[in-house]
Amino acid sequence: MTQGSLQQIHLYPIKSTQEVSVGKALVQPYGLEFDRTFMLSEADGTFISARKDGELFAFSALPTAQGLWVQHADGSTLDVRYTDFRRQHSCEVWGNHFASLIADEDTNRWFSDKLQRAVQLRWLGFQSQRRIKRYPQQALSFADGYPLLLTNLQSFAAVQQQCPTAIEMAQFRANLVIDHAPAFSENRWKQIQIGEVRFINAKPCIRCVLTARNAQTAELHAKMEPFRTLKKHFADDNGQPVFGTNLVPLNSGIIKVGDPLLVLE
Q1: What is the pLDDT of residues 226-247, one digit of tens each?
Q2: According to the model, what pLDDT value does residue 1 have?
Q3: Residue 102 parent element (H or E)
Q4: Spatial CB neighbours of 102, under 8 Å, sequence gap ≥ 6
Q5: Domain MOSC spans what residues (predicted)?
Q6: Sequence-separated (6 or more) residues with CB below 8 Å from residue 110
Q7: What is the C-alpha to C-alpha distance for residues 61 and 209, in angstroms, rounded to an integer?
Q8: Backbone angles phi, psi at 108, to 5 degrees
Q9: In the predicted model, is pLDDT for residue 251 greater than 90?
Q10: Residues linked to residue 198 through DSSP beta bridges, in sequence order
């Protein structure tokens, strides 16, 4: 059964930094190709998130044939090459410990100067060592917990109707944005297909204060909207605010804007 279509595709090459919008993408087992394959960490390997460090939104990154091109809001740029990552060490994302590669000193110094403390740029490598806790055979990027996040423009409209301030879909940092599907129907699907790829609908996405951070200015909303609206009107049975749903791909393949979304189960 067709339930809407794919309207937007977004990548986040470095976790918690600016989005890159594309018209077509390759879905890999870990998620979209180039999505959250890099991450900034503390010196001990602990991940850094824009939940606390809004200055991460000052970084924009684009994948290149050799690695990554990074630009800071101050106009300065950096070319990062895969060959700059030589040392492997453990890192951590939400209690999940796994191996990743650390950039060279010059690269880390550039990021450290911007954030005004010692940080490291991490790369998954060509094959991720991380696995999803609920699906131990499934590879995962530096994303919080699942390979892809899908949101629905009709669900967004329902949130905006309840929210006392104007919001943007960018605040929800989705990979896939669909339209023409009933509001919150995405929470009930078990398995879907978009383009060449079938997905398991793992679980609705529990939201945090990051939704209250302006995607352009990085400022937190004075009244923490739309996070408060989600908690009041769109909470799950445990009282957790939810918006969007987490997907796990069952195969690799191409998806593109305009593809219909088929509900398989």
Answers
A1: 999 999 999 998 999 999 999 9
A2: 84
A3: strand 96-102
A4: 85, 86, 87, 88, 89, 108, 120, 121, 122
A5: 113-264
A6: 78
A7: 23
A8: -65, -35
A9: yes
A10: 193
- C-alpha distances in angstroms, 187 versus 29, 117, 129, 244? 22, 40, 29, 7
83 assigned to some structural domain: yes
Percentage of the residues of the chain whose pLDDT score is greater than 70: 100
Please state the domain count of the chain.
2
Separation CA 145–CA 31 (nearest Å): 11
Give the pair of three-digit tokens for residue 187: 């929470």
Report DSSP state, residue 137. Answer: T
pTM score? 0.96
Place of tokens 């690695």: 67
Q: Note whether 29 and 124 are within 8 A (CB).
A: no
Looking at residues 139-152, what average pLDDT do you find?
97
- Report the distance separating Cα 96 and Cα 86, nearest Å: 22
- By C-alpha distance, which of 91, 96, 161 is closest to 124? 91
Q: What pLDDT is attached to residue 69?
A: 98
What confidence category does residue 88 fall into, taking pLDDT thresholds of 50, 70 and 90? Answer: very high
Residues 152 and 256 in one domain: yes
Is 148 in the same domain as 242?
Answer: yes
Q: Following DSSP, what letter does each residue of 105-116 receive, concatenated?
A: HHHHHHHHHHHT
Residue that is last in its domain, among 123, 144, 170: 123
Residue 46, domain extent: 37-123
Last residue of a domain, one of 70, 101, 123: 123
